[in-house]
Amino acid sequence: MNKELVFYYLADKPEYLPTVAHWYYVQWCEQSGRYTLAQITEKLRNSLSRDALPKVVIAMMGNQLVAAAELKIREMDDYPQYEHWVGGVYVDAQMRGMQIGKRLMSYMISQAKLAQIKTLYLQTEQLNGGLYRQLGFEPMFETHSTGYHVLVMKKSLGLSA
Predict the structure, then answer these.
(1) Mean pLDDT value of segment 64-92
(2) Locate the N-acetyltransferase domain: which residues (predicted)?
(3) Cβ–Cβ < 8 Å for 56, 68
């Protein structure tokens, strides 16, 4: 298999929308009941953009979909003051341990910078910050979100006002 990791907007490869929806449903919604698979599919359909937020980026190795992530607005309703988020970071279970998540997050950070985003936020169930801490995200606080105990983190993208 070609090991080169290539990034695309889901808008350019909408045939992968059902797979990404299934990943998100199983990972975050099946047990919590937060969204149905149909609701996630519709949310992703509304994210088929290259320019406006929300937008979804997918990672491919050859013709295999291996990961996905989103740039979006106000992920957590309780914190409307935090505007730009990266979320839905998912690497196919069979492809984990290959630095794909790190490369995808680096790409997402570069996309946020291109969009002139000054601060990027995320939430993670890894309360030590895991990969995100390695990429320069700083812990802000812990909270509960849709049945999960999470750490909210931020990264300044170094853009001047």
Answers:
(1) 95
(2) 15-158
(3) yes
Residue 81 inside a domain? The answer is: yes
CATH code, domain with 54:
3.40.630.30
- 161 pLDDT more than 70: no
- Domain range enclosing 63: 5-156
Residue 161 placed within a domain: no
On whether residue 93 sits in a domain, the answer given is: yes
Half-sphere exposure of 143 (CA within 13 A, CB side): 13
Q: Kindly tell me the sign of the dihedral angle through the C-alpha atoms of 24, 27, 30, 35.
A: negative
Res 1 pLDDT > 50: no
**How much is the pTM?**
0.92
Distance CA 68, CA 29 (A): 16
